[in-house]
């Protein structure tokens, strides 16, 4: 019912052009727009729901953000906070990307350069320059091969019908629930799927590397972009023990700083919703020496006690930047 209401609101915004006025009435504060993949999702064999938009739409998004916000880098945000000069008499915007997909370099980076806009890219260290396929992409690829079937979750956690009429949404619902199953990690859910619903032989072929390499990351740094940590292996932090969390959060900062020969000031918690990290994650981020840490909980950062280690972000999806804020 909640999602139905959102769809109606989106249509109202679109058809009445009401959103053009709403931009001007947004409250002051820091708005963080988070993207994942940029490009044509129809050509992807992996998780298509994490495509934020195509390159042309991203270009329009940047124009819109520039029109209604003062865009700043993470370094500028940290400096404003450190000197207590962050004024909430205007609207600031920060642009972020998670996961380090190669299309961030080939599709998003040219647009950012064109508009001379900074962005920060949160990198999982072991993904960059590798041919690794993360669990959510493996899961989506596998589920897509079983369209029309009922797919169970491990244990007594129910099932999901992969409705051919809305296959991508069905896959998204399965993955969404897989991240939240009690006492089961996403790795265990993937192993269950691989055992009980194996890929057909014809679907075993995979793409070449889907992540950027280190030289591409360095090229972006040289052109005004920033790099942040998204841990080493991109675990759901709330699923792992204290030692693992400490390693993922602390060691990723050290390795990135060695590779880039500059300080890494920001962390984005993998997945980033409330149940996917915890108070220990926040504590360890502070102890590791980060100045900022980002969640994926939506919201405007405008309180006097700025949430510098749980900064809210609006996740952009379905090509629609309006919906990320107004819905």
UniProtKB/TrEMBL annotation:
GO terms for molecular function: hydrolase activity. It is an enzyme of class 3 (hydrolase). CDD domains: CE4_NodB_like_5s_6s. This is Polysaccharide deacetylase family protein. Residues 91-327 form the NodB homology domain. Pfam families: Polysacc_deac_1 (PF01522). Its EC number is 3.-.-.-. The keyword Signal applies. The keyword DNA damage does not apply. Transmembrane segments: none annotated. The lineage of its organism: Bacteria, Pseudomonadati, Pseudomonadota, Gammaproteobacteria, Alkalimonas. Keywords: Hydrolase, Signal.
